[in-house]
Amino acid sequence: MEDRIYCVYIMTNKNHTVLYTGMTNELEVRVWCHKTKIDKRSFTARYNCNKLVYYAETNDPWVAINEEKRIKAGSRQKKIDLINSMNPEWKDLSDGWYE
Among 14, 16, 44, 77, which one is most buried in terms of CB atoms within 10 A? Predict the structure, then answer.
């Protein structure tokens, strides 16, 4: 059986005014869906969340699910602190993935 990698991630918009937290086992595919607004009615499409600013990986889906819930339950400041701990310049971590 193939080991899967599960990712918890945070997307934001150009001005960093909106934060979206998600979980997936195919991060590159999921980020591409956010960037291309596959579902025009989705939260990330409506608020132009197309910039990946944080992600963490695990091989345990339950750890990923619980981490996503923990992050979502936290304050905006806690999310900002988490992003700053990995990506203080808030660069798009997916730059170059789709070239």
Answer: 44
